[in-house]
Structure formats: structure tokens, C-alpha cells
Amino acid sequence: MITPFDDAYYMRQALQEAELAAEEGEIPVGAIVVWKNRIIARAHNQTERLMDVTAHAEMLAITAAANAIGGKYLKDCTLYVTLEPCTMCGGAISWSQLSKVVFGARDEKRGFERLSPNVLHSKIEVVRGIMAAECQAVVDDFFKNLRK
Amino acid sequence: MITPFDDAYYMRQALQEAELAAEEGEIPVGAIVVWKNRIIARAHNQTERLMDVTAHAEMLAITAAANAIGGKYLKDCTLYVTLEPCTMCGGAISWSQLSKVVFGARDEKRGFERLSPNVLHSKIEVVRGIMAAECQAVVDDFFKNLRK
């Protein structure tokens, strides 16, 4: 069976957002929110443009998804994000009651999974490492270009 | 020496914000940001009004303070908040590089201080328990009225 709308498909959409961020001089992280196979929010990191440390891709995507749905809880939604969410975004994911989080590259230094006790409720499904190499490469390329 | 602008003075300002939240049917948490003895941002929880789980008092105050200062880092600023910040807000405080955080009541269930390793950089000064009883009372009263 052909399943065009698998995790890799959606992660590619998040990766497109990350690439947009890079073009704008933002640390390239992208996120989308999917509800019933539909993308209801897409966002990329905008901390520089908005001059706001809270403007991570995940935060903007969660806010946009709540607007799209007309309610603050994202119970049947999945968040795709190219990089493991940080502490702040992990906390926001927890509040949002997303049912599933899929991330690409791991962030050992700032990712929420380093924290104990678990930041996310055990009912939230977490899928790791989808297109991890591509998601990491866009970050590595960004910092390589910065140092040039 | 009379010092009108001590931690209790500023916490009272945060508490006024919490009381505004309660009047609006929001879980009553208030926050202010102070820079050189000046209040540059004040905010209260608006998750219901904005229909956005990320709209905690601290998040709104951090965003507003960055706008007031004209830069995303709040290096010489102090955040006063009536309740111990949650995981999300602890992460945001960390990103913002605030120099000091003062909170009133403890939040044992959701507060950032339950997490390990420490969410905040060790350079950020944390002061706990300023007007804790008053800050807790405004939350307790809110939930008592809800149950009526």
C-alpha cells in the first residue's frame, strides 16, 4: 500500500520550514502540526525577526494550530519538528496535550528528553530520528556558513 | 534606610496582575519585569482569552520586556512572578538570560525546580517565597470560587 502521508512526508514539510528559517538568518528549525492528515500550522524559528527568545518554531506552531482548531488543546494533533524540542517547547507541548510528537535530530544539550522527571505526559507518543541526518545537516550548514 | 523598591514591593505589583487575571476568569498568576528599578513589563495569565496554552504571565512578560528594551536578552532584568514558573516558563527564562527570578508560591507539581539537571543556568539568581502566602491565597481563592 502506498502511504504518501507518513512521518517522513510530514518531516519533509517541517524541513522546508527550517530551510526558510536559514534563508532568513534564523537558526534553522521548522515545525508543523498535523490534524487528520491535514497540515493546520507551519512555522519556523523567528527569534531574530521577532526579537523574542520565545519565538521557537514549536511555540509558533502550537499557537497557530490552536487558532486553526479554535481551541487551546491539540488532543488529536501531531507535531513534527526538525530538532528535539528544548525545555521551553517541551513544556509547551505538555500543556497543549498534543497526542504525538515526532522529531528529527536529537539535541543532547538543550533537548527536553535530558530532563527528569519526564517533561511530557507518558500518554504523549514520541517518535525520534525521522530524517535525523537531513535535519541535523541544515543546522550544521547554517553554523558552517556563519563562521565563514 | 527606607527601600521602597524591595522584592516585596515588586511582588505586590505582580500580585495585582494575578488579581486582574482572576477577575478575567484566568488562573491567577501575574508577572512583571524590572530593569534598573523600573517596571518595563507587566502581564498576567491569558491562556483562556488568547486560547493559547503558551500565554502564561511569564511568557507574555518576557516578550513585552524584550520589546521595551529593544533586544531579546534581558540580562540586567529581574522577573517577579507570583507562582513558581512551570517547565515551559523556566525554559523561556533560561533563554532570556534574565539575571534574577523572584517567585512567590511554590508549585511542587509543575514548577521548574523539580527538574534535573537544573533548568536555569547557575548564574541566574533565584529568590523564593516572597509573599508566598498571599500569592498562594489568590490561586486557592480562585479554585474555591470555581467549585461553588
UniProtKB/TrEMBL annotation, chains A, B:
Full protein name: tRNA-specific adenosine deaminase
Similarity comment: family membership: Belongs to the cytidine and deoxycytidylate deaminase family.
Binding site for Zn(2+): H56, C86, C89
Matching HAMAP family: tRNA_aden_deaminase
Record-linked InterPro entries: APOBEC/CMP_deaminase_Zn-bd, Cytidine_deaminase-like, MafB19-deam, tRNA_aden_deaminase
Gene3D superfamilies to which the protein is assigned, alphabetical: Cytidine Deaminase, domain 2
Alphabetic keyword roster: Hydrolase, Metal-binding, tRNA processing, Zinc
Subunit structure: Homodimer.
Free-text function comment from the UniProt entry: Catalyzes the deamination of adenosine to inosine at the wobble position 34 of tRNA(Arg2).
Pfam families named in the record: MafB19-deam (PF14437)
Keyword Nucleotidyltransferase: no
Residues forming the catalytic site: E58 (proton donor)
SUPFAM superfamilies: Cytidine deaminase-like (SSF53927)
Cofactor note: Binds 1 zinc ion per subunit.
CDD domains: nucleoside_deaminase
Lineage top rank: taxon: Bacteria
Cofactor(s) essential for the protein: Zn(2+)
EC number, as in UniProt: 3.5.4.33
